[in-house]
Amino acid sequence: NKKFIDFALRKFLFMSNPSSSKPNRKTSFGDRCLLMAKQQRTRLYILRRCVSMLLCWHDHSISD
């Protein structure tokens, strides 16, 4: 679980950096909007997974 969280956070930080995904060719405004929406959806998914893992881990550690 810790490895997944570390990987997810690194991926999240990499995706948050706008200079890391510069397109090689000109793209239309609509294509850029779709790409940004997809990236945002991915970021939210990763954050949701991390939070749910942390909550589950916290619930399990209390019962010990």
What do these coordinates show?
It is a single chain. This protein has one domain (2-63). 78% of the residues lie in helices and 0% in strands. It is built from two helices and no strands. It has helices at 2-16, 29-63. The mean pLDDT is 76. The protein is mainly alpha-helical and 64 residues long. The protein is elongated and about 50 Å long. Helix 1 (2-16) runs antiparallel to helix 2.
Mean model confidence by pLDDT: 76
Output the number of helix runs. 2
Helix content: over 70%
**Total strand count, please?**
0
Unreliable residue runs: none
Count of discrete structural domains: 1
Listing every helix as H and every strand as E from the N terminus to the C terminus, the arrangement reads HH
Protein name: Small polypeptide DEVIL 10
GO cellular component, one term: plasma membrane
Keywords: Cell membrane, Developmental protein, Membrane, Transmembrane, Transmembrane helix
Subcellular location: Cell membrane
